[in-house]
Amino acid sequence: MATKVIKGGTIIAADRSYRADVLIDGDKIAAIGDDLAGDEIIDATGCYLMPGGIDPHTHLQMPFMGTYSSDDFDTGTAAALAGGTTMVVDFVLPGAEGGLLDALQEWFQKAGKARTDYSFHMAITGWNKQIFDEMPKVVERGINTFKHFMAYKGALMVNDDEMFASFQRCAEIGAMPLVHAENGDVVAHLQQKLLAEGNNGPEAHAYSRPPEVEGEATNRAIMIADQAGVPLYVVHVSCEESHEAIRRARQKGMRVFGEPLIQHLVLDENEYKNENWDYAARRVMSPPFRDKRHQDGLWAGLAAGSLQVVATDHCAFTTEQKRFGLNDFTKIPNGTGGLEDRLPVLWTKGVRTGRLTPNEFVAVTSTNIARILNIYPKKGAILPGSDADIVIWDPEATKTISAKTQKSAIDYNVFEGIEVTGLPRMTLSRGRIAYRNGEVLAQTGDGRFVEREPHAPVSRALSTWKELVAPRKVERKLEHMPAGV
Ligand code: DUC
Ligand code: ZN
Ligand code: ZN
Ligand code: ZN
Questions:
Q1: C-alpha torsion angle, residues 191, 410, 367, 350 (rounded to 10)
Q2: Would the N or C end of the chain have less CB density within 10 A of its end CB?
Q3: How far does the centroid of ligand 4 lie from the alpha carbon of residue 452, in Å?
Q4: Number of alpha helices (DSSP H) and beta strands (DSSP E) in the chain
């Protein structure tokens, strides 16, 4: 097979930066070094070479709130490649009747259109014997993460009883639970209260899901994970209340991971106060954008390591779909886009401002999640033997983000008008040029499923050491037996 050599670039890894050539043979990185020779030369002078972005949180073609999210695996992964992301992890939602394996089959079918590599998280949206029995079979299929919604009452939400049972099952089978942490009962009450008071616009969406409901749910999920003896991954950490819970747990030695979204790092709740209904509704997602003061904490957490991953929760709905909630904010489909913009916006607002180093950027967009999901160093690294998923990053290239030029299928972009500096010049996916200078070259169906092994038992440790065997009951007798006993 013809080989490729990328020359003249600086490799940015999570732990260091250095000048070297990269030799690619087929799907894999074959060698890293000086003056390497190959059949095809790719000039990366002045550019950085970074492991392809991994977005661990997408909802492509997902049935939700009476409709389907508009980006499917075709358009969604085209957007990903244009933004330097070479792998997505999408959420499989079991239907009301169907089991986990049926749903998984459906998602494999949808993902047949993917242009990037992909994996799945399995959602646990109820609890019964079928789910209990099917969970290990899901792990056998290469999926070691299970998502739990603590919100969306009456639809996806699970209660504490169900969550504890599922977390214990995860512990048994070497899987890791994920949570969408919001107190769904309180949200449902607040929604009804706001509607009854005549608050039916998009701004009420934010009032119905204050940071406190996220903080409470995060604390609760951490406690339940600790009692079940599993690590925990908290998706879309949007506020200080939730971050604080994670930080405290980690200080106590718990393996709890936190994932802020690029949207929450950059956009704030003022977006919902826009007088244009469409503008505000397009930004409705859960958790909602927060008061600006939360953003400094999230950025600091990424630098300090109390938060590990930046994702998108890409769940794109058109303006027409958003208008389902014209008279009732609780019916506005929740979700925003971001797959194409995550890396450029994070680079611009994070690296160029000095909040993150280039190495930290690589850690939070690729390497950390590869390790958490147990696919490192196949993914998340530029190392001999790794998949040749590489972004050739031009740190000086600029553009203004606009829906007019995006690959996503929706008619707007929540980052519209933001000028970014730092863009992929080329994206390689398993050795193939998948994106170059504005054009997606990877074809529909080029993506492959990435199997993930179960976690080793060592990663299941708790805050406090707990006996792995059943605790022994202590036999006691009274010191002075009463007479006649
Ligand atoms: N939040 C969203 O905004 N969309 C999809 C699901 C979710 O939790
Ligand atoms: Zn969520
Ligand atoms: Zn989500
Ligand atoms: Zn395997």
A1: -80
A2: C
A3: 6
A4: 15, 20
Report CA(295)–ligand 2 centroid distance (Å): 19
Q: How far is CA 429 from CA 38, 211, 447, 448, 479, in A?
A: 18, 38, 9, 10, 73
Residue among 62, 64, 290 to mutate when testing ligand 1 (max atoms within 8 A of CB): 64
Token pair, residue 484, equals 């006649």
**Residue 34 Cα, ligand 2 centroid: separation in angstroms?**
45
Distance (Å) from CA 468 to ligand 3 centroid: 33
Residue 101 has pLDDT above 90, yes or no: yes
148 within 8 A of 127, measured Cβ to Cβ = no
Identify the pLDDT of residue 471. 61
Residues within 6 Å of ligand 1 by CB: 59, 180, 285-286, 313, 315, 334-335
* Residue 475 pLDDT class (50, 70, 90 cuts): confident
Residue with the smallest CA separation from ligand 1 atom 8 is 286
- pLDDT category at 478 given cuts 50, 70, 90 is confident
Residue listed under structure tokens 């998948």 = 434
User: Which DSSP string corresponds to 345-365?
Assistant: HHIIIIITTTSS-HHHHHIII
DSSP string, 123-148: E--S--HHHHHHHHHHHHTT--EEEE
Give dist(CA 411, CA 149) in Å, integer: 28
Ligand nearest to the CA of 63: 1
Residue 140 burial class via C-beta count within 10 angstroms: exposed 0-12, middle 13-18, buried 19 and up: exposed
Task: Provide ipTM, 2 decimals.
Answer: 0.90
Indicate which ligand has the atom closest to the C-alpha of 90: 3
